[in-house]
Design goal:
- The structure is a single chain.
- The chain is mainly alpha-helical.
- It folds into three domains: 46 residues; 41 residues; 53 residues.
- It is built from nine helices and no strands.
- Helix 4 packs across helix 6 and helix 7 crosses helix 8.
- The longest helix is centred in the C-terminal third of the chain and has 16 residues.
- It starts with 9 loop residues before the first helix and ends with a helix.
């Protein structure tokens, strides 16, 4: 484990993390984890995060929307994986539910169709059933619902 040379003061931490938040969206939990790794106390971390929230640098809902947008369109993750990853960052379930509603259902199905059709071209299987299972498993690993993946897998193996 690395030795901590200097534990930042509240003002130093505020300056550093306000600059970070100005460059990219961050959630409270990510910032708290970074500050704890620097050796800051719980009270100091809470004070810095409260100050960052009051100044508008940290907003969990704004982070949630940006995270969902990026991971859905660029990493092609489904709702289940998005929800799980956001819960790991201790974002509230009500915020997650509101932000997930922003995903258009037609776009969601279209992205899943494209993702699975690309994957289906690379799958080798002994039977159609095995091929469908592999396609559905792949969709599940990416966080998509099986109820949406199964009909697509069936149509891709016909």
């Amino acid at each position: 484990m690395r030795k901590i040379d200097h534990i930042p003061t509240v003002q130093e931490a505020y300056t550093k993390y306000s600059a970070l938040c100005a460059r990219q969206e961050c959630c409270r939990q990510d910032l708290a984890d970074k500050m704890f790794r620097k050796g800051m106390s719980s009270e100091a971390v809470a004070e810095v995060i409260q100050q960052l929230q009051a100044e508008g640098f940290v907003d969990d809902e704004r982070f949630c929307r940006a995270y969902i947008h990026d991971k859905f369109y660029f990493s092609r993750w489904g709702r289940i994986r998005l929800r799980m990853e956001l819960r790991n960052r201790k974002i509230g379930d009500d915020i997650i539910a509101r932000c997930l509603q922003d995903i258009d259902e037609d776009e969601y199905k279209e992205l899943l169709w494209g993702l699975l059709s690309d994957y289906a071209r690379t799958v080798t299987a002994k039977s159609d059933f095995e091929r469908q299972c592999k396609i559905v498993r792949f969709a599940s690993q990416r966080g998509f619902e099986q109820s949406l993946a199964i009909p697509i897998a069936e149509s891709l193996t016909d």
